[in-house]
Every structure is written in structure tokens, then in C-alpha cells.
Amino acid sequence: MQYGVGAAALALAIIAVAIVANPFLANSIQSKQSHQAGNFLVLLTDPPNVPKGTTQLNMSYTGLSLHVVYADGSSKWVPTGASGTVNLLTLVNVSQTIGSASIPAGSTVNSIQFTISSVSAQINGKTYPVTTLSNQLVVPISGDLVLNQTRSAALLDLTPTLVQIAATNSTGGAVSYYVLVPSAKAIIKSSFSQGQENVGTKTQLQQTDETELEQAQQTGMGNVTIASVKLSTSGNKSTFSVTLKNQGSSNATIYGLTLHGNFSVSASQPSVCSQSASSTSSSSTTTTATTSQTSTSKEHGNGGNQHDQNSSSNQRGAEGCSVGDGEQDHPDTVPFKANGTSLVPLFGDGNDHEDAGAASSVTIKPGQSVTLTFAGVIGLKTDGGQDGQTVVIGSISGNTYTIRLEGEGFQTAQVTAG
User: Fold this and answer.
1) Cβ neighbours of residue 188 closer than 8 Å, sequence gap 6 or more
2) The Cα angle at residue 285 between residues 283 and 290, in degrees rounded to 5
3) Is 265 part of any domain?
4) What's this model's pTM, rounded to 2 decimal places?
5) Are 178 and 297 found together in one domain?
6) Together in a domain, 332 and 410
7) What DSSP designation does 15 have?
8) Tens of pLDDT, residues 275-326
9) Are residues 134 and 208 in the same domain?
């Protein structure tokens, strides 16, 4: 017994000395321990579209899960237990490991699900809260790959557009609101660099990664066609409908869309004047909506420009209250979230926080057609409260507008307003 204890102690001493003498052995042991944490990794990359002057776009995420189909045909969502915050501007042409899970050999991982818990942007040295078009994303993974005993990974490409809505409040001060419009896709990676199994590790993207991500976009949104579009405004009321058809062989997910062009703007101050349907241009309130892109990002979206129009005369509301003279800036981007088959304008002005956290998407099955519609007043309350000024936005008859679908990649089309 004494001999056995002594031999064990001697063996431990030899191992300790070997580790001190050769630190690579210690690294090898740590690496094996991290390998046991999970054989399927989730890597995030992100070339975002942001307004000029944006230096940080911080996204906090929770509830990262993988949808696994096992060898016996059963399936379930497997949580990774991962959560954290990433600055998306640091992930241009770079991937970062954000989670992992243990998946048995012979299984297939076909979707990623996670929740965006909060987003903030730092623009020209000031931090702004950001409203997301959809807080919960379910992203299909392109390419079915049966897992073997080696480590595999999903590369998630989150390519959002940060829409800026700038306005003046009822006291004439400048205010800005921001909406994050996501466009996500994912692919399977069977090989990656050593060390990427550690959460937080960043690695340069390979050319093959970008090629496969582009192919995944074509497989997803590339099969969705915009069959018909109608857009018109009468008084303060706008009517907007988009019919989509999935001509592919797999489901396609739409989170929402953005409408780009030159819009008319009217404004009213509820505490003083009632809203007039005949008021179409003059206002003491200014609003614009713009997007632009960083020079290092992939080509994505339309840059925003301000369009100015001078009002020619004072106008009066229904109660004879002057809404003033002034120069009117026209917004050029209006974001809409998909709530079932309804389109809901989302400005991030404090009035849409009640339902902004809900999942916002519509899934179109192969061969299926879906019509998304909006009918009502597109209004932005610039003070974020009931006593603030309301900016009413509408299309201009004869103008051409660009529709940008956002989902697994993006798709664009044009429509002339009636």
C-alpha cells in the first residue's frame, strides 16, 4: 500500500515537472478540455451598413440555440448557453466565435436561433439606443452536412442596415432615432483555424467563406420574387402592398422591408392644432431618414440623401392653427416590420417599443405566395410621447420607390406610386 501511494505521488511529481519544463503540454491539456465543451461552433461575421460617423454598433444577444436533426430522425432545439455583446463594426471580413454545443455524430444542424436583447450605436461620439426590426432571428443554415467526430461550425452572416431617422422636436431641438434592419444567412464550415473553439476568438474570413455566403443568399432570398407592388397616398392615408412568391425548393424567411425614395411630409402639433388631411408640405418640423455604408463593408443597401423643399405659403389646420413656414426635408427611408401578413412602420421613436421586442418575420413555403399589406397613416411622433409633434409621411404620385426585402439575404424591386 505504501509503495502504491509513493508511486502515484512520484508520477504526479513527474507530470508537474514536465508541464513546467514544457508549457506546450499544458496548452495541449487545456485545448483538449476546451474540445470537450462542444464539437459544433457558432461563428459570427458582419459587414454592416451604418451612417457616416458611426464608430461602434454594439449588439447584445441571448438564447443562442441550434436546431439539430438526429440520426434517428428526431429533432430539437439545443441551447448553447451563450450570451454576450459584440461590436459589429469589428467583424468586417472577420469572424468571431460566439458559442458552441455538443452534437452527436450522425446529426445535422439546420438552423440557428437567437435573441437580440439590445443594440446601441456610437455616432460622432454620442451613444444612441437602437430599435431592431426583429429581436428574435431564426436563420436556416445552407448546406446539409452530417456531422462526424471532428469539429464543425456554422458561420452566421448578420448584415444589418442601421437606418437613421433625424428630426426636430416640438421645441426646435434636433433628435435622432435609429432602427436596425437585419439580413441574415448562415453556412456550414467543416474546417477552421486552431484556437477558434474558444469563445471570443476572431479570425480573418477566407475567400471561400465569402463565396459560399453569396451562394447562400441566392439560395434563400434569390428564390423569392416580388410578383406585384402597389403604393399610393391619399391625404394622410397610405396604402402599400407587396405580393411575394417563393419559387425555390426550401422555406424563405422575411423579417421586413425598407422603402426608399423621396416622400412628402406634413406635421401637426396635437396639443395646439388638429391634424389636417389637406396639409401636405409646410411644417416647422424637419425629418429625414438616411442610411450609408462603411468603406470596408460589402455593397449593401442604398445611401441616403436629404431632399429639401421650400414651402411657398403658410397653411392652417382644421381648427385654423398655423403650422408655419419653413424648409422641409423629406425622408428617404421608411422601415417596415413584418407582423404576420401586415406591414408595420417602425421608427424607433419610443412609440413602437411595446411590440418591437416580439419576433418579426414571415416564412414563405416553396411555391407559396404571400401578400404583405399596410393601410393607414405613416406617422412619426418626434417627442416620443402624446404631446409631441406628429410627422406624417406619404408617397408622392408618379415618384419611383425602391423596395428592399430583408431576410436570408436581401432582394430589391421598384414601384411607381399611384
Assistant:
1) 109, 141, 142, 143, 145, 152, 153, 154, 155
2) 120
3) yes
4) 0.72
5) no
6) yes
7) H
8) 333 333 333 333 344 443 333 333 333 333 333 333 333 333 333 333 333 3
9) yes
